[in-house]
Amino acid sequence: MLLLRCLSKRSIFPVSLGGSRSELCLGATGDLVDRCPELNHSRRFTMCENKSPLMERARNIVPHLETTRHKGQAGRIGVVGGSLEYTGAPYFAAISALKVGADLVHVFCPQAAAQVIKSYSAELIVHPLLDSNNAIIQIEPWLERLHVLVIGPGLGRDRVVLQTVAELIKICRQLQKPLIIDADGLYLITHDVSLVKDYYGLILTPNAIEFCRLFGNDRSRIWEMMEKLGRGVTVIEKGLNDRIYDSLTMEKFECPQGGSARRCGGQGDLLAGALATFYFWALESKQEISPATVACFAASYLTKTCNSHAFKLKGRSMTCTDMIEQIHVVFEECFEHKKE
């Protein structure tokens, strides 16, 4: 009801853009929306600076640090991923969720990846269950304790593991669990979109190649494909300008540019982990009409700014670990509540 009421109170300003008639309207969130009759959809663009309305909303969802809070209140995040070859990706996602401010992060991975991931950090709770014979029975009790689940970093394409993950997605849907799907998790759903159709509270995080697999190469059909995914699904397309597609309002948000020309591995994992924490905070704030969109914006902004900071220090030798080391500095600059 709140969403419909807010969206109905827009002011419309007809303008001429490139010889075609469009309408600029002030959206419920204070961003400018470009409505083009030719597309029959709305496209929202945010300003490339940290004073944009979405940036202010991102700051507002960050919980205050208070001594009255207990462990777990700032977020209990789950990461499902990892494989024999890829142990870094789930670690990057999990440690980024912690560094942004989640209290606890659980990693559910195959046996072969568990000891390696544990060796990276004592901060993570690692469950070597993903390829066990009774994986679902062992993992399901943990799901109710978690606020947000990330599926995909380093997952690989083992058939048995992917079948287990497909069952986990079904259980998460039943539990109405906020879910983020990244990397090889996206590979899974490109082969069976029904797993996530109409999954309210789902966020997909494709890079350029993964986006093409999901949506095809015809960008004029993006909204048609969004409608096939169903209402309540949000997509953040990673690129030079990250783009957020909100299926509830059928609007596109352009995130600010940033980062550098250094494209080291692991940046998408950092974003996925940060996104999980921001997403829980946005949901917990109870003040957001589009919590997924605000969380996506915050995670995008944080990741690109970490890249920029780390690149200034390390240049061509910068790695994702260098970016993670910048999370504290960037968070303090951009998101932390300032003392009076």
UniProtKB/TrEMBL annotation:
It catalyses: (6S)-NADPHX + ATP = ADP + phosphate + NADPH + H(+); (6S)-NADHX + ATP = ADP + phosphate + NADH + H(+). One of its GO terms (biological process) is metabolite repair. Keywords: ATP-binding, Lyase, NAD, NADP, Nucleotide-binding, Phosphoprotein. Its cofactor is Mg(2+). Coiled coil: none annotated. Residues 54-334 form the YjeF C-terminal domain. Its EC number is 4.2.1.93. (6S)-NADPHX binds at G154, N207, A208, I209, E210, F211, C212, R213, D269. Pfam families: Carb_kinase. ATP binds at residues 238-242, 259-268. It is an enzyme of class 4 (lyase). One of its GO terms (molecular function) is ATP-dependent NAD(P)H-hydrate dehydratase activity. Catalyzes the dehydration of the S-form of NAD(P)HX at the expense of ATP, which is converted to ADP. Together with NAD(P)HX epimerase, which catalyzes the epimerization of the S- and R-forms, the enzyme allows the repair of both epimers of NAD(P)HX, a damaged form of NAD(P)H that is a result of enzymatic or heat-dependent hydration. Belongs to the NnrD/CARKD family. This is ATP-dependent (S)-NAD(P)H-hydrate dehydratase. The gene is 6047171.
